[in-house]
Description:
mainly alpha, about 55% helix
Amino acid sequence: MRGCPPPPGGARCRDMRSPSGLAPPAGPAAARAQPPARQAALLMAAAVAGTAGLAAFQLPLPGVRPGRINGLGLISVLPVSCLIGLGLLIVAFTLLLGLPRARPVALGAVLAATVICLDGVTARAEPQPRFPTTYQIAGYIDYISRTGHTAPALDAYFSWPGFFALIAMAAGAAGAHNLTEIMRWWPAAVDLLCLLPLFLITRSLRASWQARWYAALLLSLGNWVGQDYFSPQSLNFLLYLIFVAILLNWFGRAQPRSPCSGEREPLPAAGRQQVVLLLVLIAIFATSVVSHQLTPFLMLAACAGLVLARRCRLTGLPVLLGVILAGWISFGTVAFWSGHLQQMFGPVGHLLANFSSGVGGRVAGHQLHALVPQARIGAAAVVLAMAVAGVARRLRGGVRDVAALVLLGVPFLAPAVQNYGGEIVLRTYLFALPAACILGSYLFFPAGSAPRRAWLPVTAAGLAGLVLAGLFLVARYGNEAFEQTPPGELTAMNYLYARDSGGIRLIWLSQLPLANATPQMPWQYRDFEKVNYITAAAPADPASVRGLAAQLRQAGPASYLITTSTQEAYLEQVAGYPAGWGRRFRAAMAAAPGVRVAFADTGAVVYTMSWPPGSPRQPMPPVAVREPARGAGWTLAGMIALWLLLLALTAREVISLGVPAARWLLRPLTAVSVPLLVVLLAAIAMRFVLLS
Length: 692
């Protein structure tokens, strides 16, 4: 590794092989410190441990019985051999980190096996893809595939249709009409892909090979958030990492910095190559803008933070990205924000309230299940504490990791702006995690130069990995009692779809308050515009079903009430309903006057009323709503200003990078951009006023 340039004044940063451990003792001398026989023994031990660990984890999974999961989640039914196998994989990875030089093939194989075990465990242990929202997203894709268009009035998700349209197009081209296997293995696949841009990010930093590989392991062990399911967020997190990797590797600042910088010199690229990379950045951001609500804001904040910290030389890019984002929100998501400005801007500035909404409601529930949020807090605390300690260690060596600190800190601005439906704390942790893992790896690697103590940081890193692996299984899969999808629930939904002849109403149960409630069942996974989902309050007393029976009768013919084992588990473990509530509720509902059981299974029961043949149905709610015609003049002016401004700002960035002979155009383009920006902002403001 190249040493740091001397800062002005003659002082130098500390030796990168100092006891503070800021660079590896590389080269032949390091290799001689470990005899070849010892290296071969370590490599063989790692191979045996990794192979045995993978087999011990994977082989028993088909025999797991998800129906017996308790409040601790999946770990309560995993065989002990699975836990031993996961531990052996961590040990194998640790042994490889103790070698004097990197073994990329072995490290990559063990890391991939670990990710598959961590994120693919439910793909083999459960009969159906997990997580209710996965099926909802499959329903959006099904709708676009069938109709060829979106329906923002049906659901706010359709205001950001990029992910759904992309998957629908790819599935149609491949002739894949059943997405079940894609849904099943998506988490493991996307988490493996996320490691690639992470390695590219660490390439731009002054980090030893051990630190880079250990950061990848930490990202796998620390990502218990569960946002890697088949969803726009998982793809956009990958896009975020690629976006940051390109910024740091090709658009960093090349001049020497003082004191010793934690970043390397940017990769060389000719003017045309830089223009292409710039267009790739813009395309990635635009893809994220049309496919996710939160990620573009964090991309924009990361870019602006790196520019302000003088770690990125694309000084005009944040303005261009901000215009793209503002334009899409104003003109592309009207169905979402029209009439809901309070929901969008109400949480702005309420940091404590937004933080409490993301944490306060997640540390309650059944006594056993309460350990799950505690494990999540513990896992996050361990990773962030390691990051802080890693920063302190680097500072003692005279190294400032400004870029990594920017990427760590920027996501923590999000709770001051939005609560994101109570999930903002989880998303904040998710986007801060890559930088936290990189900084946390600096706590252990590179090791000091003393040969006798070289194994101390390696051993400590392995122990930290074992702790995080145990916390991961509880934190990630602690909700599996109500996040799994038993086959009976899918059978019940298919039963309802088979009886659809013009639309049905489906009543499902939730705790109070009912706002922002999501069913714990595979809802909306196909023909979802034909089912009107109605939320009803689950009675605290399972015998008090008279109100639900009346609501079911009032809904009219072709109306049903469903209760599922996962929804009952949620009410009992999280909402504080008494144990056995679901069993007693099913019995009381079946005995209610006029109610009959239409479908029964251990996973779900469907109830309906006995109606005379030919009873008239109530009409279904309208599907599509056009944008109001108010403000058409401002809309036209804003659209014209938007496109002209995008052309001017893009041309300005392209000229500054790849057309030195045309730099005289930079000032005229800036002068043109200012009035266009004023017109665009005025149009956006007037549209908010007129259309809301």
